[in-house]
Amino acid sequence: MPSTAALMRDAEVETVIIHRRTSHCIEENMARQMANVVMALAAVAAAGQTTARGPERVAAFDVVSVKPTAADDRVVRIEVGPGGRFVAHGYSLKLLVQRAFGVKGFQVAGGPSWLDEDRFNVEARAAVQEDLTEEQLRPMLQTLLQDRFGLRYHLLTKALPGFALSVTGKGSKLKRSAAAAEQSETAVRRRGAALVGEGVSTKTLATLFGAYLGKPVADETGLRGLYDFEITWTERADVVTPERVTAEEAGVSLVTALREQLGLKLKTKRVNAEIVAVDRAEKASAN
Fold first, then answer.
1. Which residues, at least 6 apart from 236, have a Cβ–Cβ distance to it below 8 Å?
2. Rounded distance, CA 126 to CA 228, Å?
3. Residue 37 falls inside a structural domain
């Protein structure tokens, strides 16, 4: 049975999953579900070098409720629903920061020791009739974190250990797509045990696999345009070291699946990534 900490690590991928009118529930079998990587389409808005950020007010929810998650509550769930509704159940402050800034776990640095441990239930509503767009949601959520958690942060760019995604010597096996434009919210989905994408750029592929591996992945395929793909791998097979993934005893690893099914490979490389550096945060009190 996976621990709550393991469930929250799995939820790091979910923070970059955008499904409007859809609730994602992570139960005790979450660690075995590859669906966590579906739609990992992070759009990092941070730019430039270190820039101090304080309690500036861009937008805000009209109604906000924040409560600590019960110790025996193992559900981790996020929902962006109709009528400007936002719900994050069982989320750590680190996961909330990831959702607010459109970044992954390795892009959040600093902060108190409880940043990735204590969990909270957040419910908020904005004065809009339709679903919140990402352009609306992120500044509102950033303001919520500043108000209720006393979040203070700055943004910087840093070279991190990661991977470069490139084409193998035998060539790419990606299929050219008939799609005219990339549809970020519906481009990638789970079909049985497989991950299927239609009209996806290789930049999106790099972001997707970076979310799964927990490291930045640079697109160095040199491939332009949009592609369709299908890939199947065994999550438990991915024991990643700098240059190898052991899979013989556990199944098909992501590295093996990329090479054999898509004609792509991963090579270790330092990759520039935007970082949200947490300067200060406080535990939100129940209301």
1. 32, 250, 251
2. 37
3. yes
Question: What is d(CA 15, CA 194) in angstroms, rounded to the nearest whole number?
Answer: 21
Instruction: Give residue 31's identity as a one-letter amino acid code.
Output: A
| Whole-number Cα distances in Å, 33 to 26, 45, 80, 108, 234 | 9, 29, 21, 24, 10
148: helix, coil or strand?
helix
Task: List the one residue out of 36, 150, 140, 27 whose CA is nearest residue 93.
Answer: 150
216 φ, ψ (degrees, to nearest 5): -70, 140
Residues 240 and 116 in one domain: no
Q: Which two tokens stand for residue 265?
A: 């490979």
Helix (H) or strand (E) holding 85: strand 85-92
Count of the separate structural domains present in the chain: 2
Q: Which two tokens stand for residue 88?
A: 């994050």
131-163 pLDDT tens trace: 888 888 999 999 999 999 999 999 999 999 999
Query: Is 0.90 topped by the overall pTM?
Result: no
The residue range of the domain holding 163 is: 159-273
29 and 152 together in one domain: yes
The burial class, CB within 10 Å (0-12 / 13-18 / 19+), for 119 is: buried
